[in-house]
Amino acid sequence: GWIFILLLPGLSDGGKLLVVPMDGSHWLSMRQVVEKLTERGHKVVVLIPEVSWQMKTTQAYMVKIHPVSYTLEELDNAFHEYVATHLKDLPFPLNVLALYNNSVHVFHTFFVQCKNLFNSKETLQYLNQSGFDAVLTDPIFMCGATLANYFSLPFVFFMRGFPCNLHYEAPQCPSPLSYTPRLFTFNSDRMTFFQRVENALVALLELVYCNSFYEDMIKFSSEVLQRDVSLLDLLNSASIWLLRFDFVFEYVRPVMPNMVFIGGINCAQRKPLCK
Fold first, then answer.
1. Are 116 and 220 in contact (CB under 8 A)?
2. Which residues, other chains included, contact 275 with Cβ-Cβ below 8 Å and sequence gap of 6+?
3. CA dist., res. 182 & res. 87, Å (int)
4. pLDDT of 66 above 90
5. What is the DSSP letter of 176?
6. pTM, to two decimals
7. Which member of 26, 160, 227, 238 has the greatest number of CB atoms within 10 A?
8. 210-228 pLDDT, tens per residue?
9. Is 46 helix (H, G, I), strand (E, B) or coil?
10. Could you tell me where the beta strands, DSSP code E, fall in the chain?
C-alpha cells in the first residue's frame, strides 16, 4: 500500500522514502524523480557513498553519506576500462568475453561499496531508527534490494535494464529466443537462422555469466539476511518495476502488471535550443 501512496500525487500527507541510487547517468535520471517526490511533500533521504561521480549534498532533499574504502581514481579506472572495451570492434565471441571480464571488474567495485555500507554501524543505526515506509532503488548492483530486505521494507526498482535479461526473467515475462535478441549479440529482432542459434547459445551462457556477475553480492546478501538467497529471490520481492524506457521502442512481449514503463526519463535535462 505504501508504494502506491508514495508514487501517486495527492493521496497522502507524505511518506518517508529511502533512496538507494546508482552513480553516474543512472543517478541523473533518478534525481528528477527524487526532487519531484520532495516537492509533493514526501520526506526523502538519499543514501550516497562518500566517493562518487555525480551524487552530492543538496538543499532539495536530505542526504545520508556512508564511508567507502576505495578512491575516486580507482572508480574512474574501472569505468574507463569498461568504456574502452565497448569501443573495441571485436568479433563474436571475443566481444562477449571482453565485455564479460570488464563487467565483472566493475561489478566487484560497486559490491565493495555495499559491503562498506553494511560495515558502517552508524549508518545502519540511523536507517533503522528513521522509520522509512519504502525504498526506491536502482537495482543493477542489488545493494538497495538487500538493504530493503534487511529492514523488511517494500521497495521499488527504478531502472533501464539488467544484464542477462533479468528484468524480464524475474517477473516471469515471456521472452522467445527467436524474436528477442540477447544482450551482447547486437542482433535485431529479425534474425537469420545462425543468428537465432547464436542467440540461443548466449541465453544458455547467461545462466553462467550472470551468476558470476552477482556471485559476491549473493554470497554477501545471504550472510547479511542470514538465509540462503538467490539472485531471483532478491529481484522477485520488488513491489513495482519502474522501467525507464518506452514500450514502443522495445521488442514486443507481454509484461507483468507491476511493470510500469516511464519512457523519457534519461540522464540530465536537455537545454533548450538556441534561437
1. no
2. none
3. 19
4. yes
5. -
6. 0.84
7. 238
8. 888 888 899 999 999 999 9
9. strand
10. 16-20, 43-49, 62-66, 134-137, 155-159, 240-243, 259-261
